[in-house]
Amino acid sequence: MLNSEIQGVKFDKLPNSSLDCIKISNKFCDALVSFQGAQVLEFTLKKFKKPILWLSKLNKFQAQTPIRGGIPLCFPWFGSHKMLSNHPSHGFARTQLWNLANITVNEFGHKIVFELTDNALTHTYWDYSFKLIMTINCGEKLELTLHIENLDKNNFDFDFAWHSYFPVNNIKQASLIGLYQMEYIDQLSSHNLKKQNEKIVVFQEEIDRIYPSTTGCFILMQDNTNKIYIESTARSVIVWNPWITKTKLLKDLENNSWQNFVCVESGQVNFQTVTLQSNHSIVFKLLIS
Ligand code: TA6
Description:
This protein is mainly beta.
């Protein structure tokens, strides 16, 4: 067990689990972050007294099992692997144990820095040398910075997404602003390119859409008054809710949980795949408030 002399930092284990986590509390927010996946699991802004991330109650927090909720990182591919069906959905970053590089606190809150470098397992899935640095700023806003370094002698392509789960009181009263006139791929139909003709996205049925090129800035109306601002330097966004039938097929979701979350996932996917040259790096940011 790690111990911490830093104010507002507590190292612990996830419930009934061997997985390490960090509990953060400061004047702005409370947060829970797992070492597995460098994944923010919970984040509550004290001024609103409500969580701005959603976490499934059925997570068992078993090692190398994806945790449903918070902000899982999909890297170095999104969704199923294009060629190899036995490769993990959404890549390996979210099920790897990341190294805690640093934690600091100042008047603006806590900054946690996690790192992940290639290892024998990652090379079986993706034969490149790399380093990921995830910086998590827990303050008046939740800010994630992902720094991707290509340490390989070859260039490599990657997709990524912060697969963020946001709470809504009733999905049917929620809506998403910021996608008007953007093109999207409907994962539930013929995968052909469609256009967002309505000014807002509403949720009246299962939805699974990839918008490859957007402004990166959105407003999630949780209901008629409460809203969450999502701003990213990444250009793609994926919008997902499994609705009734799909939810029943996911063992880490309660049957009625589809009513209380929506995923608005910021990243670079599809024709926004990133090509990173050897010995180069790139940085993406996500701000949630
Ligand atoms: O959010 C888009 C998506 O690719 C959906 O198709 C669904 O598979 C979801 O991700 C959840 O994926 P997971 O592997 O976390 O169950």
